[in-house]
Amino acid sequence: MSTGIAANDNADAPASFPNPAHNTVELGVPGQVEVMDATGRAVILTTDARGVLEIGALAPGVCTYRMIVSGGVGRFVVGR
């Protein structure tokens, strides 16, 4: 059965956890990351070598992240 939603075959996008997250989110791989809020506004740009993002200051909602070097894209939810 087709849902009309394309499969996410982007192997370059690491899984984020925990999801939803509250203060930090782990991406599992190090690298430069850009995080955008639900409006598409860039809210974090980091070269964090640990693969962990500090997200405690972000407003609750869905964020999209992009791995700058690999081009991988993923999402996580900021919860409170």
**Strand arrangement in the largest pleated sheet:** 3-2-5-6
Task: Give the number of helices.
Answer: 0
The overall pLDDT average reads 83
**How would you sum up the global shape?**
globular
Q: SS-based structural class? A: mainly beta
Helix content: under 10%
Low-confidence stretches: none
Mind summarizing the main beta sheet? 4 strands, antiparallel
Gyration radius from CA atoms, angstroms:
13 Å
SSE string: EEEEEE
Number of strands: 6
Q: Hey, roughly how much beta strand do the residues contain?
A: 35-45%
End-to-end C-alpha gap: 36 Å
Helix and strand arrangement:
Blueprint: E1 24-26, E2 33-36, E3 42-46, E4 52-54, E5 61-67, E6 73-78
Antiparallel strand pairs: 1-4, 2-3, 2-5, 5-6
Briefly say what this structure is.
The chain is mostly beta strands and 80 residues long. The chain is globular and about 30 Å long.
Give an account of the 3D structure:
- The protein is an all-beta fold.
- Helix content is 0%, strand content 35%.
- The chain is built from no helices and 6 strands.
- It starts with 23 loop residues before the first strand and ends with a strand.
- The mean pLDDT is 83.
